[in-house]
């Protein structure tokens, strides 16, 4: 039996429906339907229904899959400390988010918001814009998404470096990676600061008043990670005072962003509704990934994208998928996580 948590039906699950009793369960019925299920597919990645609906230890599913790269909605002890294997949708969103970030960098450099505003006013206003070749970008978070961002920005001519758990040189995608503890020391060198890190106790509020004060006055901040990486009030103050030139936010403390939020009208701020990773066909890709993993599960083969539940990500050195019967926590021996900064964090 497979239970799906979330509104609506994912596309392309006919192969699973032919092989299993698939129950499409909304959040308010999950507690009644989940006990005894073999598999839980969390289609609504933002749902917070799973912890409250989690059954007794003798009735938990053997495998939980979530339609996102982040797993913070599943950060509860009963799952983390039990035998249930957790997998995520790593790899679906990397290229799309990288393209979105490049689009934001170009939008700022070429002043596209002002161009669109002038067009609405029918105001013919010639001006010069910036180039991005040779500008510097700091990518915070060295997992697959951060790496995809770094590769694309580098290809566009920016000088890129990263921030991760530990410092290293000659990284194939990021060149120099600085330790997270050295963030304040490297922020002043960046024209663009891109947040692609997971949310942890260490990364929560990492961009605060002190961090913003070290950034260049002409720098722009782009957050495609988690909203709580940034102290929102501190960012509002920095933009109002002109301490930094701009910010682009795709994630927010409250979603949808309330109509009366000050963020809508702040100078230099671009607001997008948590869509950086969503592309035409992404739902189909998410479903295909689950169907492929479901086939592996039925055949007793190792699952792909097994999350180390105590670290909160798929370990980077696990070149082979971890076994379905292996406790996910044991994957820690495989080395640092793909996300670059550990987390219980669709991105």
TrEMBL record:
Coiled coil segments of this chain: none
CDD domains assigned to the protein according to its UniProt record, in alphabetical order: 2-Hacid_dh_1
Residue ranges annotated for the D-isomer specific 2-hydroxyacid dehydrogenase NAD-binding domain, each copy included: 102-276
N-terminal signal peptide: none
Superkingdom, taxonomy of origin: Bacteria
MF-aspect GO terms: NAD binding; oxidoreductase activity
Record bears the keyword NAD: yes
Keyword Lipid metabolism: no
Gene3D superfamilies: NAD(P)-binding Rossmann-like Domain
Keyword entries, A-Z: NAD, Oxidoreductase
Region (Disordered): 317-347
Pfam family for this entry, one: 2-Hacid_dh_C
Biased segments, Low complexity type: 318-336
SUPFAM superfamilies in alphabetical order: Formate/glycerate dehydrogenase catalytic domain-like, NAD(P)-binding Rossmann-fold domains
UniProt name for this protein: 2-hydroxyacid dehydrogenase
Organism: Actinocatenispora sera
């Amino acid at each position: 039996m497979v239970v799906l948590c979330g509104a609506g039906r994912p596309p392309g699950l006919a192969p699973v429906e032919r092989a299993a009793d698939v129950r499409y369960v909304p959040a308010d019925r999950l507690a009644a339907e989940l006990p005894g299920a073999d598999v839980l597919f969390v289609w609504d990645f933002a749902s917070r229904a799973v912890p409250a609906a989690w059954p007794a230890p003798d009735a938990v599913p053997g495998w939980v899959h979530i339609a996102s790269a982040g797993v913070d909605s599943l950060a509860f002890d009963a799952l983390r400390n039990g035998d249930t294997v957790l997998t995520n949708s790593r790899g679906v969103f990397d290229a799309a988010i990288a393209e979105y970030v490049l689009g934001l960098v170009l939008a700022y450099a070429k002043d596209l918001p002002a161009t669109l505003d002038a067009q609405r006013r029918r105001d013919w206003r010639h001006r010069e814009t910036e180039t991005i070749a040779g500008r510097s970008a700091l990518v915070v978070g060295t997992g697959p998404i951060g790496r995809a961002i770094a590769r694309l920005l580098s290809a566009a001519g920016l000088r890129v470096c990263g921030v991760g758990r530990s410092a290293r040189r000659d990284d194939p995608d990021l060149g120099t990676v600085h330790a997270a503890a050295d963030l304040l020391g490297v922020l002043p060198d960046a024209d663009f600061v891109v947040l692609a890190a997971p949310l942890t106790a260490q990364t929560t509020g990492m961009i605060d008043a002190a961090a913003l004060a070290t950034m260049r006055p002409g720098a722009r901040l782009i957050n495609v990670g988690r909203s709580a990486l940034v102290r929102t009030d501190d960012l509002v103050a920095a933009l109002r005072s002109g301490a930094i030139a701009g910010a682009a936010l795709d994630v927010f403390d409250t979603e949808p962003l309330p109509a009366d939020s000050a963020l809508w009208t702040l100078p230099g701020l671009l607001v997008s509704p948590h869509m950086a990773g969503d592309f035409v066909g992404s739902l189909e890709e998410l479903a295909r990934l689950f169907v492929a993993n479901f086939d592996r599960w039925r055949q007793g083969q190792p699952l792909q994208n097994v999350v180390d539940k105590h670290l909160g990500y798929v370990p980077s050195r696990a070149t082979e998928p971890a076994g379905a019967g292996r406790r996910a926590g044991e994957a820690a021996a495989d080395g640092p996580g793909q996300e670059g900064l550990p987390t219980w964090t669709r991105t």
